[in-house]
Specification:
This protein is an all-beta fold. The chain contains no helices and twelve strands.
Length: about 120
């Protein structure tokens, strides 16, 4: 079974930065794209950033210009550098992998692989 393990969450003040990491198992690394999801309390999950195997990268509008998704294939690790954090960025962040990684609200879409999540809290 594919396994994704997130780390790097924590508490930070508004304007601060955090870097999330996701360790990717070998079986998961064969998918076409990877993504970072965010779930704010009381709302459904949304894809905030994705990266495809051909190098295509996309961001949801609310994080564009502030977040950077990247991956290090030599370390089988996916990253999310989060800068200029805002209180509305507070939530659980999940690493995900699949052959298709739609941006925005997931609605009924279910990723094949999703990690357990790491909490990010931004205080004002």
């Amino acid at each position: 079974q594919g396994q994704l393990v997130e780390s790097g969450g924590g508490s930070v003040q508004s304007g601060g930065s955090l870097r999330l990491s996701c360790a990717v198992s070998e079986s998961t690394s064969g998918t076409n794209c990877m993504a970072w999801l965010r779930q704010v309390s009381g709302k459904e999950r949304e894809t905030v950033a994705n990266i495809y195997s051909d190098g295509d990268i996309n961001y949801e509008d609310s994080v564009k210009g502030r977040f950077i998704i990247s991956q290090d294939n030599t370390k089988n690790t996916l990253y999310l550098q989060m800068n200029s954090l805002k209180p509305e960025d507070t939530g659980m962040y999940y690493c995900a992998a699949d052959d298709f990684c739609p941006l925005g609200w997931l609605d009924r879409y279910v990723y094949n692989y999703v990690g357990q999540g790491t909490q990010v809290t931004v205080s004002s």
